[in-house]
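Feature request disguised as a bug report, sorry. It would help if multi-protein outputs had a clear separator. Right now it looks like this:
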Amino acid sequence: MSEVLTREVRQGDFLQIDYDVTLSLRCGIVAFRYIIDEMDVEWTISAQQRVVEGEQQKFTIRIPVPMVAAPRRALYRGTLRYVCNL
């Protein structure tokens, strides 16, 4: 489950999202992250990695909004890749 904490974010600030993850195995997670701005330009944000143990974990991620992204409406897209049984 995830919840966006910051509904409005300016260029140079951070979008913050809370995650609540429950896994039965020890897994590595790699998050591939993108911001698509008002002009439909896709900005790649550096991938983020973490290991989640076989239990419930809560964590917050911070996604930097590029200074050069067009202002106004934007879309955040994140793809999570799980590698389990580490």
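(second protein starts here, but nothing in the output says so)
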Amino acid sequence: MRAHLAWALGDRDDALTAAEAALTLPPTNYTSTEAYSAPSLVGALASAEPRDPAERRRAATLIKRGLPALARYALVFPIARPRPALVRGLVAAPRDPARAASALARCS
């Protein structure tokens, strides 16, 4: 939750740091969905408009580690199933709007 809030408030560094910390959290129940989706979601948002090469690397690492974990989490907790598609759509959007639209259509 901290990563999402920090991103919404424009504190990119705190958002990325909180998302990196969330990678170490074990899923406990369906209420962990927000925390479990934070790494890949904040990574996708940061990768869309990175400020510098270091931020681009941090964002890529969050997506690389967070998206597979989120996909596994969604297998156990179906409430999270739209989240991996949302992240894939956000990652694809800057490069391939058609692919992003297809991924986002699977979010509903």
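Even a blank line would do. Unrelated, but nice: Residues 53-76 form the longest helix (24 residues).
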